[in-house]
Each structure stands twice: as structure tokens, then as C-alpha cells.
Write a structure and sequence with these properties.
The longest helix is centred in the middle third of the chain and has 31 residues. Helix content is about 80%, strand content about 0%. The protein has 16 helices and no strands. With about 400 residues, it is mostly helical.
């Protein structure tokens, strides 16, 4: 990481921390609203109100960012999230959650494209890019841990009815981040002469890019199955209270943070594709142990509480490693546009995952949750092997 990027590192990490908290409070909201007799089918589609705006806005965000400037766009996105988080505790109606997630999703699309654009404009080689992206993305995992810890404490305390006031913390953090951005100079990514949205996107239409986007889709598909639904699995299937369900999920985020931090520090010693494949292998191993316990010991064994978080150690590096491998091959002036594609396919994977999970929970099929996760990992493993083979052919 060069000195210019080092100066902006803190506000970039805080940006990911903020967006992580608002995006991954979905598990908490599902847990709380399900107790308020909102059906799992409705809650499953709540994810779509976040993910569809992310996909839609990403198509046009590049042009907006180019005209407005990366710094102003980032500040605007973080400001809107801060304002919406300050309003949420005072609104009781369910439809506002849909609107809130739609606004948050749109802001996240802009924010992520800006952050990736800044990183790509300052770093060129593949391994340095992987190191930086793992480092910044690690803040995303800390956001999950923090939001689950804060809300878990509120929900389990005598102030449980005021759990939504935890969102005021996000507003305060947003103000602090905006101040940092205002005080920090940022080199804008290079602007690219646009030929029109369709013409610009057509430049990325080739087999390796399409397979890469498929990999991204299924990685986020898998991540969302944990981030939004693991607390409900713990509470409904393993019969633990809301506080412990959230704290056990926090440990998933903590292990994920450790996984990305370790990766950031050792990735330069390994081939990216080999490291990625080893991580997938360990995920399959842990899931095999979980399924073994379920089918040969007890379906609701408390050992599952401690095994699921370990998966985060190996799952978390997948997304930044595969992204950095591909983004390093993209011209710097096209980085924002390509990031918009990543955001679109990520949001689609997240939305579909939550819809499927809502069906599993709604039809009382949650005992198949680990098997569902394993099938998703096998799909990722297969598509990833195809992608790495295509990349080797193109070298």
C-alpha cells in the first residue's frame, strides 16, 4: 500500500464498517420481526428491497460518480445512510423497513464502486491488490461483529424494547467518517470516455468475465445464507435465546475478520488460485464434520454452535481474493464500471439466497440448512475451477 492510499485507509475502512452494519442488521431485523408475527416469506423478500436497488443503481452509478467526483459521492452516500439510521428508531410501520433497505442498498452501490475505484487507481499488481482488498474488506466483518454485539446487548437487556435505538450509533459513526473524508485529500480515479452504457458493458463480455461473475454470484449467495439467517437457525433449530443466537453469529464475523486479516498478511507468499482452492477445501471439511454430527450424533447438537463460526475463517478470503485477481487485469479507467458489475451480481446472489432461505424456514426445513450450504460450496468449487482454467489459457 503506497503512502497516498495509506492516508485514506481509515475512512475507507470506516465506510465499509458502516455499510456492513446497515446491510448485515438484516439477521437482527428478521429475528425481531419474526417474533412480532411477520412471516418468514415477507422477511425473505425484505432482502430484495436492499439488493434490487443495489443492482439497479450500480448500472448508473459510474456516470453519477464520474460527474460528481469520487469524494463527494462517497460523502453523499455515507451522509444519507447516517440520516436514515437516525430516523429508523422512530418509525414503527413495516413498509419503512423496505424503504430503508432500498435507500441503504442504493448508497452501498455508490460507496463500494468509489472505494474499489480508489484502491484500483493506486495499486496495479495482483498480490498487493489482494492484500489491500482483504485489509479493507476485513472491516466489513468487524461491522457484522459490532452490529450483532450492540443489538444483542440491547435485546437481552431490560431496554430490549428500545433495540432500534442502536442505529443511532451508526449515525454518529457516519458523522465521524464524513469529517475524516473532508480533511483527507483523495486522488480521483482516471475518467473514461463513455460510449454509452451498453457499449461500455459489452467490452467485458467474454467467457472468463462471465464465469468470474458467476463465481461472485455464488460466493455472496453463500455468505448471505450465513450473515442474515444463521441467528434464526440458532434460535429456531438449536433452541438458544436471541442474545446467544446473535453472539454466536458475531463469532462467525470475528473468525471472518481473522481470516481476511491473516490473508492480507500472508497472501504474497502464495499463488492466489491455490490459496483460494485450499480455503474452499477447508470449508467442505468443516461442513462434512457438521453433517456427520447431525446424522450420526444429534440433529440439534450444541457443537454446531461452535463449528459454524469456524467456516468464516476460510469463507471470508474468497470474495476479496477472487476480486483482486480479476480487477488487477482490468484497465484502471474501467475499474469503476467493472466494479458495478461485481456489485450487481453480488446483490442478485444475496437476494436469491435470502428468498430460498425464507422458503426453507417457512416450510420448517431448516434441518437441511447445512446440506444446503454444502451444495452451494460445491457449486462455487466447480465454477472456480473452470474460471482458473480459463485464466491460465489466456495468460
Amino acid at each position: 500500500m503506497n503512502s497516498k492510499l495509506s492516508n485514506i485507509s481509515l475512512p475507507l475502512r470506516l465506510t465499509f464498517l458502516i455499510f456492513s452494519m446497515v446491510l448485515n442488521c438484516m439477521g437482527i431485523i428478521i429475528l425481531q420481526l419474526s417474533e412480532a408475527k411477520i412471516t418468514y416469506e415477507k422477511l425473505g423478500f425484505l432482502e430484495s428491497f436492499k439488493d434490487i436497488p443495489i443492482a439497479f443503481i450500480s448500472l448508473f452509478a459510474v456516470n453519477f460518480i464520474s460527474k460528481t467526483g469520487t469524494k463527494k459521492s462517497l460523502i453523499s452516500a455515507v451522509s444519507i445512510v447516517g440520516i436514515c439510521s437516525a430516523i429508523l428508531p422512530f418509525v414503527e410501520v413495516f413498509w419503512f423497513y423496505k424503504l430503508w433497505f432500498a435507500i441503504v442498498g442504493a448508497c452501498f452501490a455508490i460507496g463500494k464502486i468509489c472505494v474499489f475505484g480508489i484502491i484500483r487507481s493506486n495499486i496495479s499488481d495482483e498480490k498487493s491488490l489482494a492484500k489491500t482488498m482483504n485489509s479493507v474488506e476485513a472491516s466489513f466483518m468487524i461491522g457484522i461483529f459490532v452490529v450483532n454485539t450492540i443489538f444483542g446487548w440491547l435485546i437481552s437487556s431490560r431496554f430490549s424494547e428500545f433495540w432500534k435505538y442502536g442505529f443511532l450509533f451508526i449515525s454518529v459513526l457516519s458523522i465521524f467518517t464524513i469529517i475524516l473524508f473532508l480533511r483527507t485529500p483523495i486522488n480521483e480515479p482516471e475518467k473514461n470516455e463513455s460510449k454509452g452504457l451498453i457499449a461500455d458493458l459489452s467490452g467485458f463480455v467474454n467467457t472468463s468475465v462471465l464465469v468470474f461473475l458467476g463465481v461472485i454470484f455464488f460466493i455472496v449467495f453463500l455468505e448471505q445464507s450465513f450473515n442474515s439467517w444463521l441467528p434464526s437457525f440458532y434460535k429456531n433449530h438449536l433452541k438458544v435465546n436471541s442474545f446467544f443466537a446473535l453472539q454466536a453469529s458475531s463469532f462467525l464475523a470475528l473468525f471472518s475478520y481473522v481470516g481476511r486479516t491473516i490473508t492480507a498478511n500472508i497472501i504474497h507468499r502464495f499463488s492466489l488460485s491455490r490459496y483460494y482452492t485450499i480455503c474452499l477445501g477447508f470449508i467442505i471439511l468443516v461442513l462434512a464434520i457438521i453433517l456427520g454430527i447431525q446424522y450420526f450424533d444429534s440433529d440439534d447438537s450444541k457443537a454446531l454452535l461452535y463449528l459454524f463460526p469456524v467456516i468464516g475463517l476460510f469463507l471470508s478470503p474468497l470474495y476479496p481474493v477472487i476480486n483482486s485477481k480479476m480487477i488487477a487485469k482490468i484497465d484502471r479507467e474501467k475499474a469503476n464500471l467493472f466494479t458495478s458489475l461485481i456489485v450487481i451480481f453480488s446483490s442478485l446472489g444475496s437476494s436469491l439466497s435470502s428468498i430460498i432461505m425464507s422458503l426453507l424456514f417457512g416450510k420448517q426445513l431448516i434441518n437441511y440448512y447445512p446440506l444446503y450450504i454444502l451444495l452451494a460450496v460445491i457449486v462455487i468449487f466447480t465454477i472456480s475451477l473452470i474460471y482458473f482454467r480459463l485464466v491460465r489459457k489466456n495468460i
